[in-house]
Each structure stands twice: as C-alpha cells, then as structure tokens.
Design goal:
Length: 409
C-alpha cells in the first residue's frame, strides 16, 4: 500500500472514531414544557369628559396675544332620580263652598250617616245632620279627606284649607215649619163650612222642639227625590271668610277674573252699542204697541217707555284679568214685569266676551258671584248662588234645598 493511502486511512479512523463511540451510547429524552403566555391585567380607565375649549378674549393692545382662560374641570355627577308627577286622578277641580262648608257631593246617601241628628250650618232654612260612617262612604269621597283645597272668593284666592269633620246634611226651605211637618197645604183637605179648623191656625198652637224639627227635616228630605249633601268643615291657618268655591291644591291654578270697581272706556263702548242696537229698537217697539192696546182709561197706570229709560238706564261693568284687561262685560237695562201675567217686559241683559274691542254674546245670565276658567280651556265659567254655569256640560253643577212650591199667581 502506498504511504499516502495509509496516511489517509489512519486519519479517517482517528476522525470518525469518537463519533462512532457516541452512537453506541443510550439516548436520554428531555421533555421541554413551554410555560403559558401571561397577559398583564389592563387597567380600567374612566371615559374622559369632553374637553371644553378655552375662552379667549381679544386684547386691545397691538401685537398682543389674546388672553385665554382655561375652563374649570367638569366633575361628573351621578344621575338624579326623575321627579314623580303627582297623581291627579280623582282630584276635584271645583266644589261649592257655602254655610255648610265644602260640598263634596249634592247627591249623598242618607245611609252614609250614623248616630244622632245634630244642628249644622247651611243655606237651608231648616237643617239636620249626622256624622259620617266611614265604612259606608265611597272610597273616592273618603280620599278627599286627606287632601287640601284652595278656597276662592269673588276676586280670587282667599286661603288654603284642610278638610275637617265630614257630615251628611239634609235641609228644608219650608217655606214654613208647617210644610216641614205636614207637607204642601194643597194636599190637605179641610172644609170651613163643615167646621174644620184652618190647618195653619191649628199648627200655630204647636211648639215643636229643635230635636223634633231636625227629625222631621231628616225624614222629609231623605226619600231619594231631594238632595242630601256630603259636606266637610274647612280648617285653615288663615281666614277663608267669603269663600264661594274650592279647588284641589295639586291641580294647576285657575284663571280668575275680578270685577272692575267702576266705569271703563270698554263699558262706555258697550252702552253706546246698546243704544243703537236693533235689539233695543225691537223691545221699545213691542212695548209701546202693547201699551197702546190698553184701554185709555187704564193706560195712564202703565209706565211710559221714556220713564223706563230714565229710571232704568243701561249700565255696564267689566270683569278684568290679572293684567287689568277686560275679558267680559255685563250689560243690564230696563226692568222685569211688575207681577204675574204682566207683559210690560223691557229688560235687556247680556254677558259678552271682549274680543279685540268687540263684543261676542254668551248665553250666561248677568250678576255672577265669581268668574273663572276652571278647566283652563280659555272659556270662563260663571258661579251663581246655587249654580256653576259653563260651556262645558261636564262642569255644570247645581245644588238645591227642598221646598214646597206654591205658584204666586
């Protein structure tokens, strides 16, 4: 073998020997486990309030930079709870007020009362009342007991009052005690020729006690055909004297008018319109025709038209709002007939709405005690002694006291 070949082989053995030895060793397997990735917790960041730009005021100095004022930082505030609107269901927009107190109902049931009869105030000539039996009172009426009312007079609000004791009230206007005890005189049969005593004369010898009168009033006005009232006493820290009507304090305040103390240009304008009206001319013509038909011997006893104009001239007065603007004007002229069956009617009266200086007639009677807009519809209600008149039928109310009626004619 050549020397170069021998050297090559020897070197190859020396180079590959350790490698071969290593391949004869047992292999050790090492498992490498990778740790899971850890994500750092992200901090919670409150949303920033929108930035308010700085306010810059220009300067009068030449080449001067505007003066800027950074706004104060805005601190968010928690939401406030929304205001809860009061429940207005069942609230009374109107109630009569008179000598009996606040009238909650003019159609009460006598069975709502309990205990003995007692005296009570009221517009009726003869009266009897009982305390309310709460267990029998309708819930809607009993609910009024916990409420307060604003009381109004002829020209506006007088006081705010609570409701006191509730009573069931019966009333009778006679016209005398005889009718309370015996009913209508027309229903009594008696004969003078037979020696019967006049029932009125006989009754004058009777002297019923207050207790007997109350018992008779209660029994004669609780038959279901006559009005029995549910009334409440008014309790207030201030005077309610002169109150005519009341309204629940939770309701929006009404628009009230007050009567002007004297003549105004608008009332003079209304009188001038009356003097030239076709209505006045027609009434005058009819009156004079009627008077001329009366026999001459009797005619002198009938008032002449000129006398009516002189003694009963046209008068007008206005109702003003809080701004002292005339909203209504009343007119009254002439007189009513002197007696039953007389045809000498010369009366002309009207209640007119003032619209842009003109007069729009209504169907209402003159001389209301108070004028107001109870339902805030822009139309005014008229309160009279026993009636609330309104163009809204649902608002019309009336109270009555039982009385035996006799025709005066």
């Amino acid at each position: 073998m050549r020397p170069r070949t021998i050297e090559f082989c020897t070197g190859l053995v020396l180079l590959l020997g350790p490698l071969g030895y290593a391949l004869t060793l047992e292999t050790e397997v090492v498992e490498v486990v990778r740790a899971p990735d850890v994500v750092a917790a992200r901090p919670i960041v409150e949303p920033a309030m929108p930035a308010t730009p700085a306010t810059c005021e220009p300067s009068d100095a030449p080449d001067a930079e505007p003066a800027c004022v950074a706004p104060a930082p805005v601190t968010p505030t928690p939401d406030e709870p929304a205001a809860v609107a009061p429940d207005l269901d069942g609230r009374m927009p109107f109630a009569f007020v008179n000598g009996a107190g606040l009238v909650l109902s003019t159609t009460a049931d006598p069975a709502w009362g309990r205990g003995s009869l007692r005296a009570h105030g009221g517009p009726g000539q003869y009266r009897a009342a009982k305390q309310v039996d709460v267990a029998k009172l309708p819930e809607a009426l009993w609910a009024q007991r916990a409420r307060t009312f604003d009381v109004y007079g002829p020209s506006g609000k007088l006081c705010t009052a609570r409701l006191g004791e509730l009573s069931v009230l019966a009333q009778h206007n006679g016209p005398s005690l005889f009718e309370v005890f015996h009913g209508s005189m027309d229903a009594i049969e008696w004969d003078v020729e037979s020696g019967d005593e006049d029932p009125l004369v006989a009754f004058e010898r009777e002297s019923p006690t207050a207790k007997q009168i109350r018992a008779k009033v209660w029994s004669s006005t609780t038959s279901g055909i006559d009005s029995v009232w549910l009334v409440a006493a008014l309790e207030s820290d201030t005077s309610c004297q002169g109150g005519l009507w009341a309204r629940d304090t939770e309701l929006p305040p009404p628009v009230t008018l007050h009567r002007a103390p004297g003549p105004l240009p608008i009332t003079e304008q209304r009188v001038d319109a009356h003097e030239t009206s076709a209505e006045l001319a027609a009434v005058k013509r009819a009156y004079e025709e009627w008077r001329n038909e009366i026999p001459e011997d009797n005619r002198a006893a009938v008032t002449e038209w000129a006398t009516i104009e002189r003694e009963h001239p046209a008068r007008a007065h206005a109702w003003l709002d809080d701004a002292e603007v005339a909203r209504l004007v009343e007119l009254d002229f002439g007189r009513e007939p002197d007696g039953c069956g007389d045809l000498d009617a010369s009366r002309i009266s009207s209640v007119d709405i003032v619209v842009d200086g003109t007069f729009e007639p209504t169907e209402h009677a003159i001389d209301p005690l108070a004028v107001f807009d109870v339902d805030l519809d822009g139309r005014f209600e008229m309160l009279y002694a026993d009636t609330l008149a309104s163009d809204t039928p649902e608002l019309v109310q009336h109270w009555m006291v039982f009385e035996e009626y006799y025709c005066p004619c």
